[in-house]
Amino acid sequence: MKKLFNIWLIALAFGLFLACQPKTPETSEGSSNEGAVSTEVASEEQRPSPLEIKEGQIAGKKISIHYGSPSVKGRTIWGDLVPYNVVWRTGANEATYIDIPQDISVEGKTLPAGKYSLFTIPKESGPWTVIFNSDWELEHGHFQYDEKNDVLRVQVSPTWESSSAEKLSIDIESPGLVIRWEKLKLPIAVQ
């Protein structure tokens, strides 16, 4: 009996030892670019709002945008899930961000090269405020937003379409960036 108890105790200690081992480079986040890609893919399966990465050019200038893409799922979006007159992270999960390697013009105003989180302030009527903020790496989106880090704010008029987009999308297309979700279309002029 004592021998069986000792074997069980050794097996338990070995199991605990294996469970407490540090992650290998293959499983740890950010170990390399290849690791980051596989981490994103693995976490994609578990995210209700999948990470989207769009890359393109506007007037010969490279742009990439990273955002969580939530779905409508039968919910009332505007004025409910996304309140009016309150800063919105313009996506889901972490803050949406844009990476621009050279200066661009947004709605006629200069935005210097860099990485910026993208926020909006939805309005029930009239133009929305689009915000580019220097603090681009925010885990919890608008919950960590700080207005003092705003680099550029512009006013953009939304349009409302008859068809509905189930998933939020931010596309690099004419006139620059176009945000679509539910019946919203928010075209942001970029040059």
Characterise this structure.
This protein has 191 residues and is of the alpha+beta class. It has 2 domains: 1-46, no CATH class; 49-189, no CATH class. Helix content is 16%, strand content 42%. The chain is built from 2 helices and 10 strands. It has helices at 2-19, 33-44, and strands at 51-58, 61-68, 92-100, 104-106, 109-111, 114-121, 128-133, 150-156, 159-173, 176-189. A 6-stranded antiparallel sheet has the order 1-2-3-6-7-8, with no helix packed on it. The longest helix is centred in the N-terminal third of the chain and has 18 residues, at 2-19. It starts with a helix and ends with a strand. 20% of the residues are buried.
Regions with little confidence, pLDDT below 50 for 5+ residues: 16-20, 22-44
Indicate the mean pLDDT.
82
Distance between the termini: 79 Å
Task: Please list the strands of the largest sheet in the order they lie side by side.
Answer: 1-2-3-6-7-8
Count up the helices. Answer: 2
What can be said about the biggest beta sheet? 6 strands, antiparallel
- SSE order: HHEEEEEEEEEE
Shape: globular
| Residue share in helix | 10-25%
Structural class by helix and strand composition: alpha+beta
Domain count, please report it: 2
